[in-house]
Amino acid sequence: MTNIINVEKLADENRKPHKTKQVKIELGELTQHNIKQLKVLNRDIFPVLYNEKFYKDLLESGELCKLAYCNDIVVGTLCCRFDLSDNRRRLYIMTLGVLAKYRELGLGTLMLKHALKICEDDGNVDSIYLHVQIDNYTALSFYKKFGFEIVSKAMDYYRRLEPSDAYLLERKFKKPLSNEQISTISPSTITNVN
Asked: Could you tell me which residue ranges the N-acetyltransferase domain spans (predicted)?
C-alpha cells in the first residue's frame, strides 16, 4: 500500500510562502533482513523494552506486522496478533508508532487502516483493541477518531513507566463468536490471552 501526499512547509521562520513537496508513504514487510530496524524503531518510539521472543514471533506474523516507510526510510511500525478469549476472536495491536519527526504525515492512519482491513478481510473478528498509557492524549484522540472507546483502566499495566496505568481501548465489529464458530478457527492463528 503506497500513498503519495503533499506536505506544506514554511520557507523560513518569518512565515514566508509555503513550499509544497511530495512525500511517499507506504507499508512494507518485516523480514530477517530488517528486523534490526524494527528493534531500533521500537527502542526510539516506545518506552517499553521487548524481548527476543517478541521479535522472533513477529517474523512469523505475516500481514500482522508492517514497517512504515516515508520516502524509503523506515519510520514506523505496526505489530498485531490475533487472540481468543471469552469466546471472542480479536485483533490486539501490540505496537503502532511513528518516529516523532515523521508524525502527522498519515503514517499512523495508514497502519491503522491496514489493521482494520485485516479484520474486515478476515470476517470473523469481534473487535480490535490495544492499551494506551492514560496520559497519552495524542494517542487517545487518534484512536477515538477511528471509533475506539475506552472500555476499562488497567492499573499498573506499565511496570517501569509513570504513570503506570493504561486504558484498554476497543473498537467492536460484531457479536462474540458462538462455540460452533470457534471450533472452525485454525489454531495456528490464535494466541490465548488470560
From this structure: 25-174
Could you say which of 55, 131, 157, 158 is catalytic? 131
How far apart, in Å, are the Cα atoms of 59 and each of 52, 109, 193? 11, 23, 20
Catalytic residue, candidates 92, 129, 143, 167: 92
Q: For residue 114, indicate whether it is catalytic.
A: no
Is 55 known to be catalytic?
no
Record the pTM. 0.80
Residue entry with cell 464458530: 181
**Nearest residue to 86 (alpha-carbon basis) of 189, 14, 192:** 192
59 vs 123: CA distance, rounded Å: 24
In-domain check, residue 42: yes
Model pLDDT for residues 29-50, shown as the tens digit of each residue: 999 999 999 999 999 999 889 9
- Residue 11 sits in a domain whose CATH number is 3.40.630.30
Number of domains observed in the structure of the chain = 1
Domain range for 180 is 2-126+173-192
Higher pLDDT, 14 or 92: 92
Interatomic CA distance for residues 30 and 36, integer angstroms: 10
Q: pLDDT digit string (tens) for 104-159?
A: 999 999 999 999 999 999 999 999 999 999 999 999 999 999 999 999 999 999 98
Q: Does the N-terminal peptide bond of residue 47 adopt cis geometry, omega within 30 degrees of 0?
A: no
